[in-house]
Amino acid sequence: MSNINELIARLNNFAEERDWNQFHSPKNLSMALAVEAAELLEQFQWLTEAQSEALDKDKLNQVEEELADVFLYLLRLSDVLGIDLLVAANNKLKKNGEKYPASQVRGSSKKYNEY
Q1: What whole-number distance in Å separates Cα of residue 37 and Cα of residue 26?
Q2: CB burial of residue 77 (10 Å; 0-12, 13-18, 19+)
Q3: Where does 4-83 sit in CATH, by number?
Q4: Which stretches in the chain have pLDDT values below 70?
Q5: How many CB atoms lie within 10 A of CB 98?
Q6: pLDDT at site 89
Q7: Alpha-carbon distance 93 to 11, whole Å?
Q8: How much is the pLDDT for 107?
């Protein structure tokens, strides 16, 4: 196990050892992130709700790998842009709490401007 900063350092080292920094522009990383997110979606394509909640071991392993790919590209992109994801996520969660007060949206899937 490693913390997020150690993982980012390992990602940086991984890219540097392969001379991939030249390819890791925000544009390229964001596109790679979208591709990996699509590969995650593909794992659930055509499944019913019940099937998506009861994945067999092989399918769950495939989902795990795609989630890891998404996470790694997200970390790499945020690092290249100098964004602390933990700070950004906490700020966004606070903002969402203000946009979606539990007392007003509990049990509803409506967007904040629809309630």
Answers
A1: 16
A2: buried
A3: 1.10.287.1080
A4: 1
A5: 8
A6: 97
A7: 26
A8: 93
